[in-house]
Design a protein that fits this description.
1% helix; Chondroitinase Ac, Chain A, domain 3; Immunoglobulin-like
């Protein structure tokens, strides 16, 4: 299926947390997204008229199980969650209001999906309505009945890309936050009022309190993005999936930086980066023609039981463009990664977004191809380890599925169950029988029992439900054990777990056994435990029946200060208005301490609040004063350093122009940046005056989050040295500001003509757009080794224009782009320690 540019645009909007639906679709929703109870239709009922046509193309002995997926229709706005049997026939389906996304099973045997929550009003885009949304995550029982819902905390709303219930009962959720940043101070040519979309990951505890928060902007430099940082709005990293590794840290796939990272789940620090421009691994066996971006826009990363990584590589930007499922071995110590398996469809499938890959118990891999833009159209493919297709189905060509998974029902049945009879004290009993292995033995040191007694042990490969701990929740293995007895009044002894029968890759020296008396309810308590290295067992003292789990507490030796979010540093606020101080933890936390003072050294504090559990606090302050504030984090017995110090000032309403304020020389057909200070929360108009007379509106209406505006000076502006700028509040025209004296607008003949925001390391490129040749004219304030390179928007070097030593002065280098394809490219001029980047466009007539 090939999609035109309009379809690509609309689908990309869906990817960026918006939903498309037909203009005639109307409904009302409460805060959870429901208007009425959703209609559930079983296989016994007739299919509804709008049920999507499911075409099974291949059926050749696939793995047993039921396929969980979605039908997300674009043009017809048909949204179903689906369960299909192994032949592709409907087993269960549901049509939630708006949509159900990321329909899957959780480790405890419950199910979940994301339900959109509408934000604001929709707007028309051709035949479709576009509607902003976030989601609420619904949890379903084994009858697919909604029993709970989960939402992010600290003012964030969840996104649909990933939701996980962890084995210890905690929740992981993801959000995309809008940050308005003056990118002209970050990268040459950046928009001064750019919306940078960052990724936020939260862990909530069993009571849905946030205990861990990670923001991409606190840990990854903005220029690392492979999105276009010159745009008005761009993605920073676009987290698409995560997976809790066996060491308790988090694997995360990042679309916009084309990498997998590992996050320390205590400090929030990045442990390593695999792939992308900041790759820290030696990648072996990959397709070198795609270097250095071997995988792009990836999704659904997970660790397999043998330690390998499995993920879905959308592959956008490859030539040719193809998507695939990928498996790597990973040596984290020596930082090597090797491609050991991949599946690339024949003919190619080209997926722009979404998609998943799941390793099944028989070794097959289930691949969901996601949102397909080019090449063959298929929705789900199951392949054997040697890449033979055993199953393949397609939804209608205008629909797709976010993720697909296969499970064998009924869920959470015992993997092994063994009973022992007439147990007696002083004996050790191994709970194995024939080919049935629980991996558990129990030493009964003391038994008070009837002669004819029974001890039963069941092992499950799913985690407990309704899980609580009387201490900080440990990282748990994805399994549990249930011990019951008959004819035994009491006993004491040891329960021992064979490491070789436990999930792999956990460090046995850190493991501890926890138990509760009643399966499915109550609080888990830690038991005295140790690792017997000689017997290769985890050993715990026990004297009771009940439900047992195994886990460990993360090692915490340091934590870091929170980042201060609002007010932004040096913000000027209106007098007599309460101020909400907002900060973000950079990792795990219990509480915070906040200090506010009238001096930057905090000799005398106005506010000193401790044991704050939230990430914001509202205070009142005196008028016409400047205040300084800082914060620190507490976790367990650890205390972070103080954060950076930020300030904010109170004043009466005002607006004051910074640039141009007189004497500047700005070039026609170039971009100059207007800057001002204000504490008005108003839209503004920007007017150009020439010789005291209004010449034209630069912008009749603007609301700037950063008090700046990038003005591309039109060629129609006459050369003159009598220009001034006036900025006026649209709410109250008595508030305005004007250049203190005249500035000049003229034709640029040399780089010296620039007196805008940039220093003496500057560059002009012309013509732009160009069809064949582009000239780069730049000024060096000191001699240095200099290079001028061209990159495509995936970061691949396209051309080396110049490289060598250059003296002080003005230089012109020409790039012959006659053999370059149409498109947008990034130039990078590096001289000594300074770098300028910008955008050039190639448009062949």
């Amino acid at each position: 299926m090939r999609m035109n540019n309009r379809s690509i645009f609309l689908s990309a909007i869906l990817l960026c947390t918006q939903i498309l639906y037909a203009q005639t679709f109307h409904n009302s929703f409460d805060k959870y997204g429901w208007s009425t109870t959703p209609t559930t239709i079983t296989l016994a009922d007739s299919l509804p008229a709008d049920f999507p046509k499911i075409t099974v193309d291949t059926l050749n002995n696939p793995a047993p199980g039921l396929i969980f997926m979605e039908n997300l229709g674009i043009s017809k706005s048909i949204f179903y969650i689906l369960v299909l049997d192994s032949t592709g026939k409907p087993y269960y389906y549901n049509k939630p209001p708006i949509a159900g996304i990321d329909f899957k099973m959780q480790p405890n045997g419950l199910f979940s999906y994301a339900s959109p929550v509408l934000i604001g009003n929709g707007y028309q885009a051709g035949p479709l309505m576009i509607q902003n949304f976030n989601v609420i995550e619904y949890i379903l029982d084994t009858t697919f009945t909604i029993i709970d819902s989960v939402q992010m905390q600290n003012g964030y709303l969840a996104d649909f890309h990933e939701f996980q219930i962890l084995p210890n009962g905690h929740y992981l959720l993801l959000n995309y936050e809008n940050n308005y940043i003056d990118m002209s101070k970050v990268i040459n040519g950046g928009n001064p009022n750019a919306k940078v979309i960052g990724t936020v990951i939260q862990e909530l505890d069993n009571n849905k309190n946030c205990v861990f928060q990670w923001r991409s902007l606190d840990h990854i430099p903005i220029p690392d993005t492979k999105d276009n940082p010159l745009n008005t709005s761009f993605e920073h990293v676009h987290g698409s999936s995560y997976f809790l590794d066996t060491d308790g840290n988090l694997l995360v796939s990042l679309v916009a930086t084309c990498e997998i990272i590992k996050i320390d789940m205590v400090t929030g620090n990045i442990i390593w980066r695999l792939g992308g421009p900041k790759n820290q691994f030696n990648i072996i066996g990959e397709h070198e023609e795609n270097a250095p971006l071997y995988f792009t826009m990836l999704h659904d990363v997970k660790r397999l039981p043998d330690g390998n990584l499995l993920f879905y590589d959308n592959g956008y930007g490859k030539n040719p463009w193809y998507s695939r499922a990928v498996e790597y071995t990973l040596d984290e110590t020596n930082r090597t990664a090797s491609l050991v398996w991949e599946y690339r469809h024949t003919p190619d499938i080209s997926s722009y977004a979404m998609g998943s890959a799941q390793r099944l118990s028989n070794g097959n891999t289930l691949i969901n191809w996601g949102l397909i833009f080019a090449g063959l159209y298929k929705t789900v493919t199951e392949v054997t380890p040697d890449n033979k297709i055993t199953f393949e189905l397609s939804l209608p060509s205008d629909a797709f599925s976010y993720r697909a998974s296969k499970y064998v029902l009924p869920l959470c049945q015992p993997l092994a169950e063994v009973s022992k009879y007439e147990v007696d004290e002083g004996n050790v009993y191994k709970f194995n029988k024939g080919n049935i292995y629980t991996g558990v033995e129990i030493y009964f040191e003391q038994v008070n029992a009837f002669l004819y007694n029974i001890v039963n042990l069941k092992k499950y490969d799913c985690t407990p439900v309704n899980i609580l701990f009387n201490e900080e929740a440990p990282v748990l293995m994805p399994c549990r054990y249930v011990l019951t007895t008959k004819g035994i009044d009491s006993f004491s002894g040891e329960i021992r777990f064979d490491i070789t029968r436990l999930p792999a890759r956990f460090n046995p020296e850190n493991l501890k056994v926890y138990y509760r008396q009643t399966e499915g309810s109550g609080t888990f308590t830690g038991l005295p435990s140790h690792f017997d290295i000689n017997e290769n067992q985890i050993v715990a003292n026990t004297s009771d029946t009940g439900e047992y789990v195994i886990g460990f507490l993360r090692n915490a030796t340091e934590i870091f200060p929170p980042s201060l979010l609002s007010p932004v540093n040096e913000k000027v606020l209106n007098n007599n208005i309460p101020v909400s101080l907002v900060w973000s933890p950079t990792g795990r936390y219990d509480s915070f301490r906040i200090q506010v003072a009238e001096d930057s050294l905090f000799v005398s504090t106005s506010i000193d609040s401790s044991n704050i559990k939230e990430t914001s606090a509202v205070y009142n302050f005196e008028s016409n004063k400047t205040y300084y504030w800082r914060a620190k984090t507490f976790y367990r017995n650890l205390e972070s350093d103080w954060s950076d110090v930020h300030s904010f000032t109170f004043s009466a309403p005002f607006i004051s122009l910074i640039a141009p304020n007189g004497g500047e020389i700005w070039a026609i057909d170039s971009v100059s940046i207007l800057r001002w200070k204000t504490n008005l929360h108003d839209s503004l108009s920007i007017t150009l005056f020439r010789n005291g007379i209004k010449h034209s509106f630069i912008k009749d209406t603007i609301f700037s989050h950063t008090n700046a505006f990038a003005w591309k000076i039109p060629k129609s502006i006459p050369e003159d040295s009598t220009y001034k700028i006036r900025i006026t509040s649209l709410k109250d025209s008595t508030f305005f500001t004007e250049s203190a004296s005249d500035f000049t607008i003229g034709l640029a003949t040399d780089v010296e003509d620039f007196t805008g925001d940039y220093d003496s390391f500057e560059l002009l490129n012309y013509p732009n757009p160009a069809s064949n040749r582009i000239n780069f004219k730049f000024k060096l304030s000191q001699s240095a080794y200099t290079s001028l390179k061209i990159f495509d928007f995936l970061g691949r070097e396209t051309a080396l224009v110049f490289e060598g030593e250059l003296p002080v002065g003005i230089h012109i280098e020409e790039w012959d782009a006659s053999k370059i394809q149409n498109g947008n490219y990034i130039y990078q001029l590096t001289s000594g320690t300074k770098t300028i980047t910008g955008k050039v466009a190639i448009v062949k007539r």
